[in-house]
Amino acid sequence: MRVVRLGEGVDANGEFAPAAIERTRKALSDYADIMVAAGVERVRMVATSATRDASNRDDFFAMTSEILGRVQPGARAEVISGDEEARLSFRGAVGELDAADGPFVVTDLGGGSTEVVVGDADGVRAAYSADIGCVRLTERCLPSDPPTTDEVVAAREFARGRLDPAFAAVPVDDARTWVGVAGTMTTLSAVGAGLAEYDPEVIHLSRISLDDLDVVCRRLVGMTRAERAALGPMHPGRVDVIGGGALVTMELARVLRERAEITDLVVSEHDILDGIALGLLD
User: Fold this and answer.
1) C-beta separation of 276 from 88 below 8 A
2) Which domain holds residue 24?
3) Domains: count for the chain
């Protein structure tokens, strides 16, 4: 897994930065080498929030077509809707969970968007993709290091405004289990557990109380980037945006505590990637 920050600057500039496309090209080329060596026959690459917003996405697609064509002729990245992104994340996240613990609310907190999905063993009931993520919130509201009190207040208000439509569209009142996926959630779990280094086996299906989650989030928001970078389980690509992710998480937790009386968060290492892979088997 590589953090390429494809969405860097998209919220402000409306297009992919050349450096971001180059980082993605290098990672994708390495992946293609692995797939060719493994004899892969079918490949699917999906592009999410940042690609939906970028004016120069044709440059990105041309690059993906060239590289993925080495694995499967004609393959290229595809832009998926926020609704499909949410459904793929849900499928990946709940596959191992006990159906008796449902209904589930799954949140996939990415760089540019956050998907909120409710469903059970029978599938998705409702889903919404909100235009708020750790990169988008950081770039828009958190320029200081560490963020000032005013910046944090403004960021939480902005996150709340972007999440309100999600919770208006997705009924969470009868949800019994909150499942968080993607890098912000797994990092919060790792920091909360005090891990010396990132360990996916420990993090997968770990639980953290909302009280403890709040402590971890506030701690990370108040840190400087250098202090975050010194944390053992912190991925270098997440150092400058984890504060924004923590603030979005705090807003998610606030709503789910109030509406569904949820008291803890289950963190899953299985997410949209697993949903995409499972979809190739259909």
Assistant:
1) yes
2) 10-79
3) 2
Question: Rounded to the nearest 10 degrees, what angle do helices 57-68 and 18-38 cross at?
Answer: 20
Its pTM stands at 0.81
The answer to whether 57 and 79 have CB atoms below 8 angstroms apart is yes
Select from 37, 54, 79 the last residue of a domain: 79
- Are the C-beta atoms of 3 and 237 separated by less than 8 Å? yes
Answer yes or no: is 5 within a domain: no
- Is 281 among the domain residues? no
Alpha carbon dihedral 178, 259, 120, 97, in 10-degree steps, equals: 20
Are 184 and 72 part of one and the same domain? no
CB 149 within 8 A of CB 236: no
Do 112 and 244 lie in one domain? The reply is yes
Q: Which tens digits make up the pLDDT trace of 113-168?
A: 899 999 998 889 999 989 999 999 999 999 999 999 999 999 999 999 999 999 99
